[in-house]
Specification:
Layout: E1 7-16, E2 19-29, E3 34-38, H1 45-52, E4 60-65, E5 68-69, H2 74-80, E6 81-84, H3 96-106, H4 111-124, H5 140-152, E7 158-162, H6 170-185, E8 189-193, H7 197-203, E9 206-211, E10 214-219, H8 221-227, E11 232-236, H9 240-250, E12 254-256, E13 261-265, H10 270-282, E14 289-293, H11 297-304
Parallel strand pairs: 3-8, 3-9, 6-7, 7-8
Antiparallel strand pairs: 1-2, 1-4, 4-5, 9-10, 11-13, 11-14, 12-13
The structure holds adenosine-5'-triphosphate (ATP) and magnesium ion (MG).
Length: about 325
């Protein structure tokens, strides 16, 4: 059923001893989208991935993955998902090709299908030349690509990627992003954790921020950026007279008369930008140039995590 979300989770809880890692997590991920879970080291991202991929059990709560109940139908869940863990599943003693063949066997693909799928993945992940070398000789980027290729052998509908690009150079990272985009274009759902906020910004349809066991914010990258202060519009004027009339039109703003620049606080929305422009227009203010500055995800992350007292939950 295409209308059903790929992942729903309600009230997921998990503790290690008396350390509460997940304190009631709700998630909803539509099919064919990328969902990114952000959080500081130790926030519980890998724990969440492990629970949703049946590797460990939750202490409480429930989840459905690809239409199957996590606790009642773990085998059906396993058959629909792929997991690329934070730490590589590649066997160093085997060649790239052998690693893939092993996965094909684990998925009970017949020999012919297995061989075809293996060849196709080696091609897709640019590993044809390295196929017969042992994985021990691979670079970090090659190993990461092989790891993801192994995840794809079973043609999963939902893929969990736990920090898939940590340690990759910018080119390899971009290559990985491209692969993720192609998978999503093919209808696959991606659940991604990352330390690189730029990565979430690039790939994710929706982002959730995990902190102190709870989801403290959820939304599109733009929605999250709008939630924290710091966004502003800079208006530059040709002369003092225009600057003065702008001050009269928009009211209290910080000004720099030397550079003829006004800084107007702004929430990043199109509506408030339009309201500002309309007001300047109504007052016949001549603006020389305008630039909009929105906080980036780094600002969001720092504002939302790590310092409990400062967090204002939605
Ligand atoms: N097997 C375990 N036994 C005890 N504590 C654990 C275990 N696994 C994880 N933890 C604890 O649970 C918390 C969350 O760990 P988790 O690996 O989910 O964090 P993470 O968000 O993935 O961090 P990172 O960004 O460093 O990968 C940490 O405090 C960790 O020490
Ligand atoms: Mg982790």
């Amino acid at each position: 059923m295409p209308s059903q979300p790929a992942i729903t989770a309600t009230g997921l809880r998990r503790s290690y001893g008396d350390h509460v890692v997940l304190d009631g997590i709700d998630l909803k991920v539509p099919r064919g989208t990328v969902f990114s879970l952000l959080g500081a080291n130790g926030a519980g991202k890998t724990t969440t991935v492990k629970i949703l991929s049946t590797l460990i059990r939750a202490d409480g709560g429930s989840a459905r993955i690809a239409g199957h109940d996590l606790s009642a139908e773990p085998d059906a869940v396993r058959a629909s998902i792929g997991v690329t863990g934070q730490f590589s599943a590649v066997d160093n003693l085997l060649t790239g090709q052998e690693n893939l063949t092993l996965m094909a066997d684990l998925h009970h693909l017949d020999r012919k299908t297995g061989r075809r799928r293996t060849a196709q993945l080696l091609e897709q992940f640019d590993l044809v030349d390295a196929a017969r070398k042992t994985a021990a000789t691979y670079s970090g980027g090659m190993r990461r690509r092989l790891d993801l290729a192994m995840t794809l052998v079973g043609s999963p509908q939902v893929i969990f990627l736990d920090e898939p690009t940590t340690g990759l150079d910018p080119r390899s990272r971009r290559a990985m992003w491209q692969i993720v985009r192609e998978l999503v274009a093919g209808g696959v759902t991606i659940f991604l954790t990352t330390q690189y906020l730029e990565e979430a910004d690039e790939l994710a349809d929706r982002i959730a921020v995990l902190d102190h066991g709870k989801i403290v914010a959820e939304g599109t990258a733009d929605e999250l950026k709008r939630r924290i202060p710091g966004g502003h519009v800079l208006l530059r004027f040709a002369d003092e007279r225009d600057l003065e009339s702008a001050v009269r039109a928009v009211g209290q703003v910080s000004r720099d008369s030397d550079t003829l620049v006004l800084r107007v606080p702004h929430d990043g929305s199109l509506r408030s930008l339009k309201a500002l422009l309309d007001r300047l227009d109504r007052n016949a203010v001549e603006v020389d140039s305008l630039s909009v500055h929105t906080p980036d995800l780094d600002d969001v992350f720092l504002a939302l995590t790590g310092n409990k007292e400062k967090v204002t939950a939605p």
